[in-house]
């Protein structure tokens, strides 16, 4: 009887923890996702909430775009092609011009990762390590995607129609990678009660 009460209490506690996790995950993700959209509007000329002061001093959207475009240009140049860039585009001489839009930045994935790390019940140290590792993984894969796409379009200009869905393919790939990382991380950082403790 006493064991049944303990099991019942554990289930209630587990359900409460799960509900708190899901609520935190959705709230933090919503806040970050909408906050990023607001900042994109506030820092883009012609945006609904555009403000020159915010655009000049708080434009982390452009900063993220720069740290994607600049290394992608280096990679393309390392392959022997002449690549140039401006604030939003990467151009290969006699080749494609790639526009790095808001959707290319990976802010949705990063918002999810931050929300997961805030919401998941584990030690902060482990969550910070997870966040750094996964954000760096997303960033590196995104740089390779942008530079790889530019190189493929340069080498195979007549095959452009096959690269139409590169964004969707990248998102699917990145979410598979992230969920695999999270799966193994959760297995490692979740305490499973033994029969002796029940």
UniProtKB/TrEMBL annotation:
GO MF annotation terms: peptidase activity
InterPro entries from the UniProt entry: Exo/Archaeosortase_dom, Exosortase
Q: Which domain of life is it from?
A: Bacteria
Membrane topology is: Multi-pass membrane protein
Main location group: membrane
Where does this protein reside within or beyond the cell? Cell membrane
Membrane-spanning residues: 14-32, 67-84, 104-124, 130-156, 168-186
Q: Which Pfam families match?
A: Exosortase_EpsH
Keyword line: Cell membrane, Hydrolase, Membrane, Protease, Transmembrane, Transmembrane helix
Please give the GO cellular component terms listed in this UniProt entry: plasma membrane
According to its UniProt entry, the protein's GO biological process terms are:
proteolysis
The answer to keyword Ribonucleoprotein applying to this record is no
- Provide the protein name: Exosortase/archaeosortase family protein
